[in-house]
Amino acid sequence: MPCSIAVASTEMFMRLRTFAGTAWRIVRQPAAHLSLGVLTLGGFVAGIVFWGGFNTALEMTNTESFCISCHEMENNLYYDLQQTIHYSNRSGVRATCPDCHVPHEWTPKMARKMQASKEVWGKVFGSIDTREKFLALQLELAQREWARLKANDSLECRNCHDYDTMDFTRQSARAAAAHERWLGSRERTCIDCHKGIAHSLPNMHGIPQG
Amino acid sequence: MRTMACVALSLLLWSLCAIAQEPLSPQSELLTERVERSIDPFRRGAHLLAEPTPPPIAHVEDNDVRRARGWPEQPPTIPHAIHGYQLDRNSNRCMVCHSRAAAEKFQAPMISVTHFMDRSGQVLAQLSPRRWFCTQCHVVQSTTPNLVENRFIDIDALLDRRGLD
Lengths: 210, 165
Known about the structure:
Oligomer: heterodimer
Distance between the termini of chain B: 78 Å
Number of strands of chain A: 0
Helix content of chain A: 55-70%
Order of helices and strands of chain A: HHHHHHHHHHH
Order of helices and strands of chain B: HHHHH
Shape of chain A: elongated
Structural class of chain A: mainly alpha
Helix content of chain B: 25-40%
Largest sheet of chain B: none
Largest sheet of chain A: none
Number of helices of chain A: 11
Number of strands of chain B: 0
Radius of gyration of chain B: 28 Å
Number of helices of chain B: 5
Strand content of chain B: under 5%
Shape of chain B: elongated
Distance between the termini of chain A: 65 Å
């Protein structure tokens, strides 16, 4: 039995080698019928089409409708969001999933998208596909996000909420005092006090909230 | 014979019932009118069969001004808005500011000592579980006209009145 497997794998390896050899020969040979101009321009246009397509597909994964196409997201996290001020408020200015969870700059965004392959794994293997599983994992997921926001000084919050142009006269006295005292002095960052602003909190026993 | 008796008896009963249904006197009509207008104070006197336009939803007072208490043990009303404050088994947003540890940092009144006591009056180290859900007793206020007449007399006023007797 092991003998036949070894034979089969050697045979497959030989086939792969032949294929690779052919491919390399084709790629290495200079073009017989097409001019340099056609190849260059064609390559350029194809590159643009590819890049545009790539980014379009990437941006499609950056929309709220994509995120909530998974029932795990829609039933747990989107439902939480719907009770909060980031969903429905006086001015109707909303925050959607990527606004807070995906960096806006290109390089960090690519990095995040590569990390997101772990989420594909989670979807395939159902890491939070029931309410109970979600609640069991909720704290860990939340802590990861809080750590991320703490590390980048609540960058995603600051994408919309700018401290320098905050009008304290339009906030309540407590809010104005707290913002001036801790945000102004850079002693704290947004996420330190505003945990649970978008999704309901897991059991917060032992976790500081202020 | 028996059938006749039954029929006669039922006829008698029916006629008695019919007599008992007097036409409404003017006084009972007024009573019905009052009932139809006062079933639910939220209807603010609208007739039961009418469909009134509800008034606009009142804003919650958010000025941090402490209000007077009606009697010493009254749970103080909340002088600020609490919209979106999570208060469930997972998290108590009120205690983030009003706990003993945080009161100084946020300049918020610490929860009273009664909130540290269990049902036997023993003082615990932290908030007693029976006091976890603040909004069972403490509420926000909004400036709206009273729905129901309030005839409550403050004890101080009562004591003053007694002094004059």
